[in-house]
Amino acid sequence: MTLAERKAAARQEAIAARAAVDPALAGPANRALIEAVRAAPGRVVSAFWPIRAEIDVRPALNDLAATHDLCLPVVVAKNAPLVFRRWRPGDLLREEKFGTFVPQATEELTPEILIVPLAAFDARGFRLGYGGGFYDRTLAGLRAAGGPVTAIGVAYEAQRMAEVPVETTDEPLDLIVTETGPHWPA
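Structure for 5-formyltetrahydrofolate cyclo-ligase, as requested:
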């Protein structure tokens, strides 16, 4: 089986596990996420608008809006890093491909703390996304620029895998937060 096939199979398995989770578990995960963001260096936080059965981080964002500048990711081109547009709770959004929502505002920010969605994660801090490589390219670029960057994956514990298949372009997370609390990569 090729690496691409292993990733596709792992992604399918993880998405099915995530879909079976009780969404009420998002509450404890959001509380742990708020604590993790407040402990991380930086003021500009990017997050994501949940799609499919992704964990809903909007309650955490409502809380963090009082102390941090928030932004949401925007895909501008295939094989390009994400850009991040300022967003505050209540701001207007527009629907994009795949059911994602992006701010109508055009002001771009550079995040220092990235709340990252994922299909699966492992104890090493690697994540499995949807296969587009957007977060990997973005994290690599931000880290190469030398500014503060903390990547926090947020997921349900059911999305944990023994080992996520990785390739050289996959960027690890600095922290994963689930309903059981924070988990630092081993």
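The chain has a mean pLDDT of 94.
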